Amino acid sequence: MIKGIAASAGVSVSKVFKLQHPVVNIEKREANVEEEIKKLQDAIVATQKDIEAIKANAVGRLADEELAIFDAHLMVTQDPEFIGQIEEQIKNDSVNAEYAVHEVSSMFIGMFESMEDPYFRERAADIKDVTYRMQTHILGLIIPDLTTINEEVVIVAEDLTPSDTAQLNRQFVKGFATEIGGRTSHSAIMARSLEIPAVVGAGSLLDKCEHGDSIILDAIDGAIIFKPTEAQIAEYTAKGEAFAAHKESLKALKDAESVTTDGHHVELAGNIGTPNDVEGVVNNGGEGVGLYRTEFLYMDASELPNEEDQYNAYKTVLENMAPGRVVVRTLDIGGDKELSYLKFPHEMNPFLGYRAIRLCLDRTDIFRVQLRALLRASVHGKLSIMFPMIATIQEFRDAKALFLEEKKNLTKEGVAVSDDIELGMMVEIPAAAILADQFAKEADFFSIGTNDLIQYSMAADRMNEKVSYLYQPYNPSILRLVKMTIDGAHKEGKWCGMCGEMAGDEKAIPLLLGLGLDEFSMSASSILEARRIIRDLSFAEMQELANTALNMSTTEEVLELLAKHVA
User: Fold this and answer.
1) Looking at the annotation, which residues are catalytic?
2) I want to staple 165 with a disulfide (CB 3.0 to 4.6 A). Which of 182, 190, 498, 543 is the partner?
3) CATH says 2-19+146-228 is which class?
4) Positions in the chain whose pLDDT score sits under 50
5) Which stretches of 427-554 are DSSP H helices?
6) The CATH number of 33-139 is which of 1.10.3210.10, 1.10.10.10, 3.40.50.300, 1.10.274.10?
């Protein structure tokens, strides 16, 4: 048995389709500039045709949010800065086209892979996918066509690109296993959309199997078994059938209340990155959007998005989610999330540097455009705005003052704006959690960003493998900060949500419920399971559980407590 990361739940008993892409060997050589520019341009055109064909083939099978990935891929091939740098390298160094593509793409990929936010790290996968396809066209290599699969298989590969995943036909492809990757990779996200079981990051696989071997893919517990016994086949077939029955039963909860056995109600919302993501939240019974990351508007553009473009995006989300609440996080960029068209200072520690609200309060010209767009869109739904990375009361006051100034300006211009906009803040810095009772006098709500709160509290970069053991959501110190934040909000009659990964963690939900969390915001695919869990729990009992956990000493003790008391 080989263990990996369960990225898209399900069980499949099938046979192996061993996927191996052609190897692109990149060697630097001196070449004729005109010939290489022509090769590059031809490869770009061919790549664009491939992407358009793959997208057309996926229409009806992938959700709009996944199809939008291919719009992003086309944008890479049309990006004047990206393509321009490749052409410049060919001209300046008289080098071969595939080498120039490799050099320039490596620089962009490195930039994105160094970013903390998984949403933006995955932009590196977009560039890898597109540039790999460009290089194969330059070199005359052929990428396997997965649309030709016409029998039931589980694909085994080093990795699957978004283009690969988009070609998968659920009728025949019953799952996939990859050597690398994580839960936030594009292939994993698209597998969840297609409802295809997937196990990723499983290490060496290709040298352990042959095309046509029998395979069990357990994407519930993240296990892969090659050449299973008859007994194992029977066991996992039954497990798959039970999972399918459970999944079908969850659909009945789409319109159900998120209420405990003793009548305590909470709100379940979804995290989104683009307007297209709202559909998934609605289809999974989400009561609102708890985190709308607006960075995509800036990351997917070649210049600062203007007020009209932002207004249209916010308007779309608010209308599609109405009457549910939409919590929009203002621009959270800077430090590790750089924009090619905006100059950032070099920093020794960008995670603690010039980013998020700090950048916005310095570059008020950028911030005001976003605030105006949000204010104009506010009449189209129930808007809540939250400021990221707030550390001091003055920062919140300054941000609120700019909001009120732009509201006044728009009113003077005769533009309609809502008078019912909540202004809140992300609680992701320990200083804000400790002072939550005072912040609650200023803010209308809190949303706890556990990803940063944990790494800042433990002084450990969660992307650093050497210290990743310190990323401990269940550490009593973190639970106390969460409790402090919730109590601070409630003391002033305000609500408190959570939009970090912890909010959708099935083990954490009972504990967070007991701590008094009002709103849980998570990936859309997690909402129905979270609702099932909450509807089976007693709020009073979970309060007792949480109080016990708060007085423990270690993460291990808390996990042991949860294992004993929560099914």
Assistant:
1) 186, 499
2) 190
3) alpha beta
4) none
5) 430-434, 436-439, 450-458, 476-491, 508-515, 527-535, 539-550
6) 1.10.274.10
